[in-house]
Amino acid sequence: MRYAISLCFALSLFTVGCGDDDPPPPPPPTDTGGDTSLPDTGPGPDTGPGMDTGMGMDSGMDTGSGMDTGPGMDTGTGDTDLPDPPDGGTTVALEFSDACDAFASCESDIVGTWTYTSACAPLAVSVPSMFDVCADPETGEVAYEVRTRSGSVSGFVMASATEITRMVSVETQLEIFIPDSCIMGVECSFIETMSGYSCPAVAGGCLCTVEQTDVVNESEAYTISGTTVMMAGGDTFEVCVDGDNLTYVNTTLSAGDTAIYNMTR
Questions:
Q1: Which residues pair with 240 in a beta bridge?
Q2: Which of 7, 186, 200, 259 holds its CA 20 to 30 A away from the CA of 153?
Q3: Which has the higher per-residue pLDDT, 265 or 141?
């Protein structure tokens, strides 16, 4: 008997009961929402103050715009109907011509992931306005000469039903000759200082190398009214979709960009 009592005492240290007459221990108290001093062990949401970290409530931080279905951080966009964006998109040459293809806007469904296929800009649009000092104010005739032009457009555009993500870079490189008759004795080094461009002296004037890069990397809500896409930030575009081909022009007044951009999805 003494052995049995000692064994029972030893087992009781590990919360194992001895004998058939001992009732089971009562369950530990749980927090059902009102008493926050007790641990929350229930599977449902905690209706009391404080954050519920139990199974029923997701305590992870949601940084995306879609639905958070996991316990951790949600970085998804929620647009499962769109393919993953291409790494960097595509890069195409920017053509400079006064004979770019004509563009006519049309009512369109722009949802999809778009990459560039071609781009064309009028000859005049590429010259910075600072060189207008070499233009005759009455005739508009310019004294400067654009000797070379080159450029590229790279990136992609993703459009859902309510939001557009743009990752686009437009680069242009120009060589502009400014004759002595325009600068009237001003040193080429002074033009460099004022413009920020490289403008070494050459025979008869200055030869400026103008390099410009315009980058857009943002996501914005948008609406469509007829053929016009209106971004929440104020930019506007005229568009037309023909099958899997999209053509657009930037009609934002402050942009000064009249190039025609062609894309595919």
A1: 247
A2: 200
A3: 265
